[in-house]
## 1
Amino acid sequence: MPTTQEQITAVMQRIYNNGMTTLSGGNISIRNDDGSTWITPSGVDKGTLRPEDIVLINTDGSTQGLHRPSSEYPFHLAVYAARPEIRAVVHAHPPALVAFSISRTIPDTRIMPKARDICGPVGYSAYAIPGSTALADNIGRRFAEGYNLVLMENHGIVSAGHTVQEAFERMETLDFCARLTIRGNQLGNVRLLTDQQIDNARQNQTGELPEFDHSTIDAKERSLRRDMCVFIHRSCTRQLATSTEGTFSARLDENSFLITPYGVDRAMMGENDLVCIKDGTRERGKNPSHSVLLHRMIYERHSDINAIIMAHPPCVLAFGVTGIPYDTKTIPETYIMLRNIPLLPFGSQFIDREKTAGLISSKTPVVICENDCVIVTGKNILEAFDRLEVAEYSAQAIVNAGLVGGVKHIAEHDIAAINRTFNIS
Ligand SMILES: [Zn+2]
């Protein structure tokens, strides 16, 4: 179990590496049982923060450590004073959330099914000078009203939770909603989910399967577990998945495959967290992703598909939230790798599994599920991940092309020539 100071540095590192803060911006604190508070220091590079750099603020206001505490400590203490059950506060200036902060609007979490459950309602606090008691009062008041996430006017975001992980996940999810909304608005009109659609998604997801005893893991399975973890971690650092969203699976043999568990942080996923599914039963004591039934159906129907990724890359999903078709005839590589990408109505992946599994094939390796995810398949995990990256980078190019003159697609006769040259049917 990492120490409190190690937990703070790990999350700060992640925020910095994900581009959610600059080296001087952002601060994190954790409250101890005795009412004292660990907090990140002032004026220390957030990219190279060490556990010994974290400062302790005692209950009498005195401090201990190598540095001065973050100058924003007054609002951290105000949040703890407002809500005794809160044990961690995360503050940062992620560019997408700052875009909302300076335009004084709140990102709508109804853009994705799980976001509202993770974030809860988002509060808004009026501007005040950084480090001031006025700022602490404004923020403390919003947390006293019950918000766990507060957008700070002309500043950034404050997120809180029972743990620093929970506070981070809330901020990360809201940041994802913000990035997706911005990308969607660049492309067209963003469509939000209804309460009914969000409830349906919650009720229709299940990973309930009978259990089996998975006593031995052979070398092949061990190696596949290792490979999957490499790509799962990479999907987080490249912001193609978040800590709470993104499902990876890979086939072991005709009747079994490995899949990511439900509720485990993707960035921290270990080889032994992955769940083996065999003949429709799950490895004892582990809970597979709630999309396990769809993965199983795809493997059953398509012997040439050996890896499936359900991910949340913001540019691809810009098509998913606007309903605009993703035309892959932009550059040859994009068309060859992705072929045509169908856009499926929201809920297809859990309401209409049979149809969705039937639609996916080696000729239609990628589908977008409206307001939810992209499903990418491949003959192995490397090919599926490659497709995921190509899909996201190409989508980014299309969204950006809209700002520099619009996309001109490859002509049909040139596509016919690509089909002939690369044996595409
Ligand atoms: Zn700040």
Note: The chain has a mean pLDDT of 95.
## 2
Amino acid sequence: MKNLLELVEARYSARSYSDRKVEQEKIDYILECARLAPSAVNFQPWKFILVESEEKRTALHAGYAQEWFQQAPLYIVVCGDHSQSWTRKKDSHDHADIDAAIAAEHICLAATEVGLGSCWVCNFRPAIVSEVLGIDGETVYPVAIIPIGYAADAPTLKKRKALDEILTRI
Ligand SMILES: Cc1cc2nc3c(=O)[nH]c(=O)nc-3n(C[C@H](O)[C@H](O)[C@H](O)COP(=O)(O)O)c2cc1C
């Protein structure tokens, strides 16, 4: 069992997948980790759409036309729901994206823990993705598509800013 730092270090954006089937219990585990994510006021303003069928997978590919993306055997699309999210009254800041992002990273870390590759994908065509998923794209909208599967590539060295560049101590 990896500790959190080891898990965070092990997660990387996998951009090549084998066609090995992903076991149902691993999918269930990942979804449970998403379900338990924290959210503002515990409003849980998200929907998770598991895309596994050949028909919907193929349709989704039109929303992000990268060859590597098409290799993934399944996708979890994390959607935000503005009708359920918390908005801070002082400045009307809607927290749906933040909440969805936390759940999305839970998914990626859980996938890593069970030996699966994953990648955040946000550079998709929102209108196409919403149509494929059957969501309106406005109240309920896609935040991230996460391809999941057995990775066929390997992590490279993490490039990150040094702590002294990003930390202010006051
Ligand atoms: C919000 C967000 C959106 C991203 N969108 C994409 C994307 O559309 N396509 C892609 O290949 N990678 C995408 N990435 C992955 C980043 O490029 C990657 O996390 C970053 O380069 C660090 O590499 P690592 O994940 O391997 O540590 C996204 C990551 C985040 C957090």
Note: Residues 12-13, 119-123, 158 surround flavin mononucleotide (CB under 6 Å).
